[in-house]
Write a structure and sequence with these properties.
The complex is a heterodimer of chains A (about 450) and B (about 90).
Chain A: H1 3-11, H2 28-32, H3 37-41, H4 44-58, E1 62-64, H5 71-75, E2 80-81, E3 89-90, H6 114-128, E4 133-139, H7 141-149, H8 152-159, H9 161-185, E5 189-193, H10 202-208, H11 210-222, E6 226-230, H12 239-244, E7 249-252, H13 258-267, E8 271-274, H14 278-283, H15 287-301, E9 306-307, H16 320-330, E10 361-367, H17 374-388, E11 394-400, H18 404-413, E12 420-423, E13 426-430, H19 436-450
Parallel strand pairs in A: 1-4, 4-5, 5-6, 6-7, 7-8, 8-9, 10-11
Antiparallel strand pairs in A: 2-3, 10-12, 12-13
Chain B: E1 2-9, H1 14-33, E2 37-44, E3 63-66, E4 69-73, H2 79-90
Parallel strand pairs in B: 1-2
Antiparallel strand pairs in B: 1-3, 3-4
Classes of the chains: A alpha/beta (about 450), B alpha+beta (about 90).
Chain lengths: ~450, ~90
């Protein structure tokens, strides 16, 4: 099976002989060809050379032609600050500094850096398009709206939702036109990259993101191409909403448990990918760390609809040997079992209570240690106060992950962030501390449901 | 003097770059309104440097610390809430 077909089949959620390997080489490609990030992002020749070099070094089954979430914003008038070893940053937000929405026009192939990007894309597709799958990455509508509006967008959601809807509708048009440009240039897959949606709730996602993103995916599908929805950060709460937008694939970083994404995406016949740790493994880890992490992702992801990839674009200084080690593992050149070592948790166990048959509602709070960690302390205080209202109908226990048993509890409960509140074995509050009223209401509901 | 710190990596991912940049903008805005507050940005070359930063408990970047107490990890705080927390420290 060809490398390209491997990716396309996995994108369609089909069985493949192995998980296809798609290293998200963005500004890292600049380091491969010895230029800085600013030089790279401004030159079609550098982008072309960088992607070809990444293809030669890492033997991927697919690659993005570019990973820069500021191209559309720049073409719309946002000023950028370029860096030597990072993608550029948006430093001004036109819709927060006097520019009216009706004054903005959808960027074309002639605006901003689009001429550079599209020239590079066409050349890359000509050179590699019959060998590997090529991704065109577009800035998602919410992240683009945030670039245009700045942090006022969060207040718009409450204070002026109609205005935000009009901004989102404009961003949808930009997404569709950018997707069209990439598809015309020859890419196989268009990915909507919307990392800032990790900062909003599922309700806000459903109201302000889903309708717009779904129409972009419809457009890509109608054009006969495949699509992916990328998110970064702790977006576990929004995975289901992302799947409802009907992309072919979703791609996540290490903040979300891969097994959870596999389960949710499977319900919607959506393929999935990502999860290799960018910082701890790729940037700062050793070759062994990278292999172990990849091995774990491959074991969980399996070979039906899983695309092996990093959690986001790889940092500029990612050691080449770390990425090459992953390629070697993918091609079976490293016997993974040789890397198995003893686990520090071997012999340690913790038993989950039989929640259904307890004569009370059980709250498990996973913390670092409420005596030394402020967020953990506040979460425990919320639990103490809410529990006090329900007397002996509710019990609670703090599991400090400094203890090995607590780590086992954490794994068994499926918890990946600290602090977290679980009620009768179900994860209820991750990182965000609930109000006493909210928690009391949930506990009353649980007590009533259980009839205790 | 009240000290507010932003801790981030020198080479974060694309999402972290956007969040970090928005926090920097908030700091700049608040700095103009609160001359009695010292706003500091710490960009680490390596994640190991986190160990030396007082008050860091949840190792997820970007991190905001007010008077060496961590108030966020990997997320963009509400601007009004951040201002309120700093004002509480000013007293």
């Amino acid at each position: 099976m060809s490398a390209k077909k491997l990716v396309l089949d996995a994108m369609r959620n089909q069985q493949t002989e192995r998980a296809p390997w798609v290293p998200f080489v963005g500004c890292h490609a600049a380091s491969l060809i010895g230029v800085n990030a600013e030089e790279y992002f401004k030159s079609s020749e550098h982008i072309y050379n960088g992607v070809l070099k990444a293809c030669e070094e890492y033997r991927p089954d697919g690659l993005p032609v570019l990973f820069d979430l500021q191209v559309e914003a720049e073409a719309l008038g946002c000023e950028l600050k370029y860096a030597e070893n990072n993608p550029p940053s948006v430093v001004t937000h036109p819709l927060a500094s006097g520019v009216k929405l009706e004054d903005l026009t959808v960027p074309t192939e002639k605006d901003g850096r689009f001429p550079v990007v599209m020239e590079a894309t066409k050349k890359i597709c000509e050179a590699l398009g019959d060998k590997i799958a090529l991704y065109g990455l577009i800035t998602g509508p919410y992240t683009l709206a945030l670039h245009l509006r700045g942090t006022d967008i969060f207040f718009d959601m409450m204070d002026d939702p109609d205005y935000l809807h009009s901004v989102m509708a404009f961003c949808e048009k930009v997404c569709i036109n950018t997707a069209k440009m990439y598809m015309d240039a020859g890419v196989d897959i268009v990915a909507i990259v919307d990392p800032m949606t990790s900062q909003i709730s599922p309700d806000s996602f459903a109201e302000f993101v889903a309708p717009y993103a779904a129409r972009v995916f419809d457009y890509i599908r109608d054009a006969g191409k495949l699509s992916s929805f990328f998110v970064c950060g702790d977006a576990k709460k929004n995975i289901e909403e992302m799947c409802k937008c009907k992309p072919n694939n979703i791609s996540i970083d290490e903040n979300i448990p891969l097994e959870y994404v596999k389960e949710v995406a499977g319900k919607y016949d959506v393929s999935f990918g990502g999860n290799i740790k960018l910082t701890l493994s790729l940037l700062f880890g050793t070759v062994t760390d990278c292999i172990k992490d990849t091995k774990n992702c491959m074991a969980i992801g399996g070979t039906k609809g899983y695309i092996l990839a990093p959690g986001c674009d790889m940092p500029f200084s990612t050691p080449v040997e770390n990425v090459k080690a992953i390629s070697s593992l993918v091609y079976g050149e490293i016997a993974a079992e040789l890397l198995d070592e003893g686990n520090v948790l071997d012999g340690v166990d913790a038993v989950l209570p039989d929640y259904k048959n307890l004569d009370h509602v059980m709250i498990d709070v996973i913390t670092l240690d409420s005596e030394s960690c402020a967020p953990c302390q506040y979460m425990m205080e919320a639990v103490y106060k809410a529990s006090a209202e329900l007397g002996n109908k509710v019990a609670y226990k703090e599991h400090k992950v400094k203890d090995k048993e607590a780590v086992i509890m954490m794994v068994k409960l499926g918890v990946s962030n600290i602090p977290t509140i679980c009620i009768d074995g179900e994860i209820k509050h991750v990182s965000i501390i609930p109000s006493k009223e909210e928690l009391v209401a949930e506990l009353k509901e649980a007590v009533e449901a259980k009839g205790v | 003097m009240v000290e507010v710190k932003l801790v981030t990596l020198d080479e974060p991912c694309s999402a972290c770059i956007i969040i970090t940049n928005l926090i920097k903008e908030m700091f700049k805005e608040l700095e103009a309104q609160m001359p009695e507050v010292a706003f500091t940005i710490i960009e680490m070359q390596h994640i190991k440097e986190l160990k030396a930063i007082k008050g860091v408990e949840v190792e997820k970047m970007p991190i905001i610390l007010i008077q060496d107490e961590q108030i966020s990890a990997g997320s963009l705080p509400n601007k009004r809430y951040l201002k309120q927390l700093i004002e509480e420290e000013i007293g």
